[in-house]
Amino acid sequence: MHIPDGYLSPIVSLGAGAVTIPVWAIASHKVKSVLNNRTVPLLAIFSAFVFTIMMFNIPVPGGTTAHAVGGTLIAVVLGPWAAVLGVSMALILQALFFGDGGVLAIFINCLNIGVVLPFVGYYTYRLLAGRSPLLSGRRVWAAGIAAFMGITAAGLLVGLQLGLQPLLFSENGYALYSPYGLGEALPAMLISHVLGASIVEGFVTALGVAYLQKNHPEYLTTLKSMVSGSNVPEGQATRRPLWQTGLISGSVALVVLLALGLISGGGDPAKLFGTDWTTVRWSDVGIMMLIVAIIFAILVPLTWLILPARIKKVGTYFMAVAVIAPLGLITPGFAYGEGSAADVQQAFGYVPKGLHAFSSFFSAPFADYNIPLPFFNGSEAHLWQQAVGYEITGIIGILLVGAIAYGLALLIGKTKKGPGDNTIREAQV
Amino acid sequence: MSSSARLGRSPARKKQKQSLGWLEKTLAGITSSIAQAVFTEEHSRKAGWLQQLDPRAKLGMFLAMVLAGSFTGSFPVLVGLYLVTLLAARLSQVPFDFFVKRVWLGIPFFAGIVVVPSIFFTPGERPLSFTVGSLIIGPSIPGLIGASIFISRVAVSVSLAVLLVVTTPWADLLKSLQALHVPQVFILLLSMTYRYIFLFLRSAVDMFEARKSRMVGWTSGKEQRKWIAGSVGNLMNRSFKMSNDVYSAMLARGFTGETRSFNTFRMEGRDWTALFLTIGVAAAAVFVQRFIR
User: Fold this and answer.
1) Where are the domains of chain A?
2) Does the residue B218 lie in any domain?
3) A10, A61, A268, B293 - which has most CB atoms within 10 Å?
4) Can you tell me the distance from the alpha carbon of A82 to that of A80, in angstroms, rounded to the nearest whole number?
């Protein structure tokens, strides 16, 4: 996500200096007040360390690799201000001597990766870790989530900066700099980070904190006590029982979901997520759930038994998702398979152009998400018959998509020169 | 499938699948960085045109040209600027194939991939288009113009950066930042960091090679990630210990926290000429691009 030169207008990339330079000034003042004469050797060596770990490839499930940044780990250990300087130094040297990121773009890259990332990461970590003992498991997952948030925030910022370019700097209908608007750049950066780099960064940071807890817990205190080598009040390694963690995170997720639903539904509890739930016949939903449960109980163990060992795990997960997914059909608005372009318009206020174009020349073999047989969707068909129909079409659809994806992956895997060529290109943009 | 048949087949297949993985990629990345630094140092000592100039003049020339490239929205002018960098590379004895390859195989290639879809999405006239259903597919004129300007600008920027780095020893380049009023402490920090980078890269290579040479068979992704996180933590511990040692060593040699640097650079007539010439070219490019489209 280092922005190279030429992607941004120099007004933006140099203008970022108005934020970055004062932050550097404050940071060096703060760090100096703690470290005194140690500032230079400690920061220089930690910057070299940051530079080195930015070169590490992390194995990602699926055989590819991604690069870590390590900004949050540094912020957890050195505090946010020292992390700002350490990561910035590494970024400057990368831009000057190793061609990673532009030279004019140094300010903006340092703002994204060197300032926003460590600060978001550090404060998320502090918020989640609270006053828990140094060796508690809570600190591990707090660091993981913090790293996830930090790098996602940085990626989002990059998307914002790239996406603003065509809005601000266009001429005669063509973009002078990065050509994608906010509508493309933001989701592209967000999705690629949330589904890839952020998860990797989160995992590595969490594992890194776990390693430090086990071997060097003194690094998890403040910068001051770390340098002065004072006694570390480590506390005991505590582990919350799994059911408690599950219960807490589950209820948090529920509350967040409810809040989001209320916000998008305009505060009316009957209209969560903007759909009218009063039109749902809950007895039907119950039957639907029962049918899904039965199918789940049969199909998932069956898949586990049938599939060859190599894809047993993945295949079973996939089947479970395929069975559960048609439950989404109970949502009114798109209820019972009427997700036509008109429905989309009603729900979102507009129809994506692509959807409109495609809906005319691609007519689904299973129109209305049901099997075109009188048993399943005839006028006298019972609800359970319809439900089974939805289930079957849903499963077939999802399995088809999966099979296509798997086939494509196989094809790409075959034609690829070697497995060494599939690094996620984190370095550019 | 019997378990013995599975055992007989799967390790070979897994090994083939995983052998060129993250470990080798990291090793290759680190080695190529070191090689690049060595190569750069080698060229920065040659007796070419840019090598003989004062680093501060070079920094000024670089900034003037990069700004000119960034503010230019005209394809012919950008091509002209690129030709100027080629000429400068020639005069500075930078190997032509290295220079062109480094620029065009690197970032502009990637930028090209990023830009290609935009050619088709930008609204505008589409002279070469065909219709699929209700979709009209074809490159649009504004899209093509935008893409070529974008790619040529990235190429110019990258060429200039490569030229600056390849013709200036790193210590001189960092010192020349003083001319931009970068505080002395930061320059000291940057140059110390640069020195220690190679030590750390060396340690990292040792760690990775140690693991690779002791590994038979394959391990799970979970174990690999755990090992990486552990090696990050281990390196962190080492860097903290080393910073203590370095601090003691600096203290023993009379370091009081103040940084002083003596400056041997002197701008001569040749340096001023080159600087003003470049600024002139840059200003002309920015002026001319209003008229040449």
Assistant:
1) 10-233, 240-274, 283-421
2) yes
3) A10
4) 6
Q: How far is B192 from chain A (nearest CA, A)?
A: 6
DSSP assignment of A68-98: ---HHHHHHHH-HHHHHHHHHHHHHHHHHHS
E strands within A111-213? Answer: 170-171, 174-175
Task: Please indicate whether, in this complex, the C-beta atoms of A55 and B30 are within 8 angstroms of each other.
Answer: yes
**Assigned domain for B144 exists:** yes
- Considering only alpha carbons, which residue of chain B is nearest residue A47? B193
ipTM of this predicted structure: 0.83
Q: Could you say which of A38, A77, A98 has the minimum Cβ distance to residue B236?
A: A77
Contact A179 B154 (CB under 8 A): no
Interface test with A, best of B70, B134, B188 (most A CBs within 10 A): B70
pLDDT winner (highest mean) among A7-21, A170-184, A230-244, A363-377 = A7-21
More confident residue, A62 or B239: B239
Residue with structure tokens 């950008």?
B78
Q: How many domains does chain B have?
A: 1
Residue in A closest to B153 by C-alpha:
A6
- Say which CATH architecture domain A10-233 belongs to: Orthogonal Bundle (1.10)
Q: Min CA distance, A326 vs chain B (Å)?
A: 30
Residue of A nearest to B187 (CA): A89
Residue B10 lies in a domain: no
Residue of B nearest to A8 (CA): B70
Residue B7 lies in a domain: no
Q: Which residue range(s) make up the domain with B99?
A: 22-288
With CB atoms and an 8 Å threshold, state whether A309 touches B6: yes
Rounded to 5°, the CA angle B111-B157-A175 comes to 55
Residue A427 clears pLDDT 50, i.e. is over it: no
Q: Indicate the helix (H) or strand (E) that contains B25.
A: helix B22-44
